[in-house]
Specification:
- This protein is an alpha+beta fold.
- It has helices spanning 10-20, 51-61, 71-75, 78-84, 94-101, 103-113, 126-135, 159-170, 239-259, 292-299, 304-312, 391-402, and strands spanning 2-7, 27-32, 42-43, 65-68, 89-90, 120-123, 140-144, 153-156, 182-186, 191-200, 204-206, 211-212, 215-217, 221-224, 229-232, 265-275, 278-285, 327-334, 360-364, 367-370, 373-376, 380-388.
- The chain folds into 3 domains: 2-91, Rossmann fold, CATH 3.40.50.20; 125-180, ATP-grasp fold, A domain (Dna Ligase, domain 1, 2-Layer Sandwich); 191-402, D-amino Acid Aminotransferase, Chain A, domain 1 (2-Layer Sandwich), CATH 3.30.470.
- It has 12 helices and 22 strands.
- The termini are far apart.
Amino acid sequence: MKVLIVGGGGREHALAWKIGGSPYADEVIVAPGNAGIRRHARCVPVADTEVEGLVSLARDEGVGLVVVGPEAPLVAGLADRLEAEGIAVFGPSAAAAEIEGSKAFAKEFMERRGIPTASARVHDALGPLLEHLEASPLPVVVKASGLAAGKGVAICRTRDEALAAGRDFMEGRIFGAAGDRVVVEEFLEGEEASFLALVDGTRVLPLAVCQDHKALLDGDRGPNTGGMGAFTPVPSVGEDLAARVTDEVLLPAVRGLAEEGRPFRGLLYAGLMFTPRGPRVLEFNARFGDPETQALMLRMGSDLLPLLAAAAHGDLGGGTVEWREGTSLCVVMAAPGYPAKARAGLPISGLDSVEAGPDLQVFHAGTREEGGRTVTAGGRVLGVTAFAPTGADARRRAYDATRRIHWEGVQFRTDIGARGMAPR
């Protein structure tokens, strides 16, 4: 079949690489793609926000399956439009994608469905928001309710930080309309993990557990980002704990959405914190995580494409996923200025020095070709991803490759997996 992948980041590069290796993929098209994706697929310059343009592209190309990477086109109703045209799509409807598109909706949904999460209040006006923040125990978490590219979260440890975040989100509108509603949430401590599952509307097929690193700097310091690195598996999350999350979080969410007239087909992502009181959901996403996908694709032994098609057609049935024995780890390399205002157009050197293969890939996220050179074109630029029999070997292989690549002001964390891969 011919496959269209929507998006142009590191997640989409990893998906294009994996799906392109399937014997069932006649051709992989990516819209809009990036400089690295061109090595694995045909890129077409249609933005991931151009819903009608993407529908026309899928129809004109005779695409058998559309795989939607980013959240924005899902929230905008791309899956609905494709289904109306009779085109199979891996990705939820706009109604189902609201579980990511509105943190306020997600909170209220989890309360209705008894899904464990942090206590929270939703605010629509600045005055009551500031009053609440004046009285909230510290630390406190302030979140823009709408889509903010993974950056609309502030962990505030002082009263001044909390009040400033509230004003920035709602009055300063630093995240635009995403901050018109603000969620104030209790701060949770513990071990984080990302749970991703393929969903066909009723059934859930969990993928391997991952751990993401959201903070910009080593030691989980600095501002939140879209993710600075990830690894899988997570030694602290065993089979029993993973099964508990499936039973207490993933299945109730899928059943609840279906019962409320929002059947979910696609990838459901639950970001969890394991607290002394048990697992608590930090967020739901309605698509593959980034950079978790980069780590997962390198470790996955199964052919992904038939599973995506089965989920899109509502028939995962007895589908299973095989995983290679070992660890996969992704280090994100970011442009200077990220996550605030990243510098673009910086020439990247050293890409040719990294020998790619099944155990090592440099997935492009924010790159473009300019004058015969590959240059930065976004905040997160590359995801250097390695697989090895042990976590220590995977870290070593990824960082050896990372240090061979350079551009002016490059940023990356040096501690991805250093703590989380040690069993506790």
